[in-house]
Task: inverse folding
């Protein structure tokens, strides 16, 4: 079945306003640095799973001299990433391609590092994706992820409401389940780190900025209706972050060898 695109232009514009040009997940360049810390990324061949419009790939190419391949299900995002790579003179180090759900279109042991930021738990096959990551990583290489996650309790009405406001597909996992997917795939030296406290504070700061100084710019860029939608979207997100129901975490594993 063909993928139905979910990231419309105004949503992408809003995410860039909040998280920085080229970024569709929190943290910007600092998040990329945290994902790569300890993986020896300089000059390596890196696969960015769920690359969006290319911000992390460009950061890895510029700061690490990496050769980056970005893949995403949404063709309009890939088109934007390709155009941005050309505009920034990074087309020689950053390649992007649209893929379909399922096995990656790469041979075994093609990459030194696989990275993903806020993408894997937007599918209902996280375990399969992590197994595919294991397949395409060279022995001794790493899979490193930052993901939106959930607590182990049943979803509240506030959680369902936030998901409705997001207008995105989510199949959130607990940190424990996500780590088990790494173990089942064959990764060793698995490290998990809860980042919920960090983003709990960030989401509140973002919300205050959105409904305050940034609001006029949002109306100009997005129109009144979408600007108001995103204000409410962030308010709902703050609620589930501050309750501890919606969480964030890092997970990393190494392929033996």
Result:
């Amino acid at each position: 079945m063909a993928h139905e695109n979910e990231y419309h232009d105004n949503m992408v514009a809003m995410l860039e306003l909040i998280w920085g040009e080229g970024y569709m997940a929190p943290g910007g360049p600092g998040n990329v640095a945290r994902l790569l810390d300890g993986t020896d990324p300089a000059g390596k061949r890196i696969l960015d799973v769920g690359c969006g419009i290319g911000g992390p790939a460009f950061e890895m190419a510029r700061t690490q001299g990496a050769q980056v391949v970005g893949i995403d299900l949404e063709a309009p995002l890939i088109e934007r990433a390709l155009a941005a790579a050309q505009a920034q003179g990074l087309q020689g180090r950053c390649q992007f391609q649209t893929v379909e759900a399922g096995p990656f279109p790469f041979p075994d042991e093609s990459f030194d590092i696989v990275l993903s930021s806020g993408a894997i738990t937007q599918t209902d096959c996280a375990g399969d994706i992590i197994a595919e990551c294991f397949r395409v990583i060279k022995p001794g290489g790493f899979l490193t992820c930052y993901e939106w996650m959930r607590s182990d309790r049943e979803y509240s009405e506030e959680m369902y409401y936030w998901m409705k406001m997001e207008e995105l597909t989510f199949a959130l996992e607990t940190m424990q389940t996500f780590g088990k997917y790494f173990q089942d795939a064959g990764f060793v030296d698995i490290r998990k780190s809860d980042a919920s406290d960090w983003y709990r504070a960030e989401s509140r700061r973002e919300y205050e900025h959105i409904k305050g100084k940034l609001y006029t710019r949002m109306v100009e860029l997005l129109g009144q209706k979408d600007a108001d939608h995103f204000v409410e979207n962030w308010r709902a997100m703050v609620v589930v972050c501050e309750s501890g129901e919606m969480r964030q975490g890092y997970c990393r594993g190494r392929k033996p060898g």
